[in-house]
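Let us practice reading a record.
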Amino acid sequence: MMMPHHSSEMSLFADAVDRLDEALRAMEEYPALTVVRDGVIKRFEFTYEMAIRCLRSRLRRGAHPDAGRYGYRTTIRFSADAGLIDDPEAWIGHTNSRQSTTHDYNEPVAVSIVANVPTFAADARRLLSRLRSETGTDI
């Protein structure tokens, strides 16, 4: 039996959160290694994108059938309205960090992004928990 598309997305998101946590643990152990820092940033990027995908998917199943076309900020605003995320301003900050990895990446930006990844990881875990309780699944 095939899983519904949203379960697959949620499974990928859950895996991404786990991998991000793994990278954060490695960074605690090896804080001076830039390769570890860069790995944290890569995993942050992937986890952030999976979070947004899950939010858009959830919004599409609710009152926003066009959510796939929404930009990051609109997705965040509607997700907050739907009770999926608590602090839209924090998620806007995560969006800014994600966009910085693409547009302005350099040493000071990398250090700044990594400093905020633990906060993002906590927000991502909270979102995953909400999505799981909403769907009644432990994926």
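A brief commentary: The chain has five helices and no strands.
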